[in-house]
Amino acid sequence: MPTEIVYYVAASLDGYIAAPDGNVDWLTPYFTPEGEKNYNDFYASTDALLLGRRTYQQILGFGTWPYPGKPAFVFARTGTKAINDDITITTKTPADIAAELSARNLPRTWLVGGAQLASAFRSEGLISEYIINVIPMLLGSGVPLLTPPSPVEQLRLTGTTQLPLGIVQLRYLRDLSNPRQ
Predict the structure, then answer these.
(1) Which of 83, 102, 118, 142 counts the highest number of beta carbons within 10 A?
(2) What is the pLDDT of residues 96-143, one digit of tens each?
(3) Phi and psi dihedrals of 119, rounded to 5?
(4) Are 1 and 106 in contact (CB under 8 A)?
(5) For residues 77-88, b (16+ Cβ closer than 10 Å) or e, as one string?
(6) Is residue 22 situated within a structural domain?
């Protein structure tokens, strides 16, 4: 059975996941106990992680590795080192890693980010679910949710959750009954 790859991310109302310099400090005022419970429930449902090089380096800058005990695949070409045995630095394609996740019986994988990695998985039709936490803020510019160009893809809304401070979580599945156009 193929692994389920979930792009779980916070985005501003105008579609950015980070400021132009990659900074995500703008999210700090939105951390609440209810939001943390929502995140913890999601995290507990995952078996592995996918990260781009910049996202990985940014997380390392936060201090302690926040994902102990879960396999993490970091997509990087050169100069990136794993800080523990759970982390694999890879140059494999998204399809190769998706096949490896399935072979290792890791049924649900969190695509942590960033936008280029999400777009690479999306362009190969490998993201099965999108969970977008829309933050009530307009950044005006920054790192987009997905990088162009991307094919058209029909999604099906499966749920919405209103969280504190005006955050709305949107959940979408790929609509396999409607082929890409």
Answers:
(1) 118
(2) 999 999 999 999 999 998 899 999 999 999 999 999 999 999 999 999
(3) -65, -35
(4) no
(5) eeebeeeeeebe
(6) no
CATH number for the domain including 105?
A: 3.40.430.10
Of 114, 119, 113, 117, the residue nearest 151 (C-alpha) = 119
Work out how many domains the chain is built from and give that number.
1
Q: Domain span at residue 50? A: 43-150
Q: What is the pLDDT of residues 6-57, one digit of tens each?
A: 999 999 999 999 999 999 999 999 999 999 999 999 999 999 999 999 999 9
Task: Count CB neighbours of 97 within 10 A.
Answer: 21
- Rg of the chain over Cα atoms, rounded to whole angstroms, equals 16
CA atoms within 13 A on the CB side of 97: 29
Secondary structure of 10-66 as H, E, C letters: EEECCCEEECCCCCCHHHHHHCCHHHHHHHHHHHHCCCEEEEEHHHHHHHHHCCCCC
DSSP letter, residue 166? G
- Residue 83 placed within a domain: yes
> Which residue carries 């997905």 as its tokens?
146
This prediction's pTM: 0.94
- Please answer whether residues 118 and 131 qualify as being in contact, where contact means their C-beta atoms are separated by less than 8 angstroms: no
Q: Which helix (H) or strand (E) holds 146?
A: none
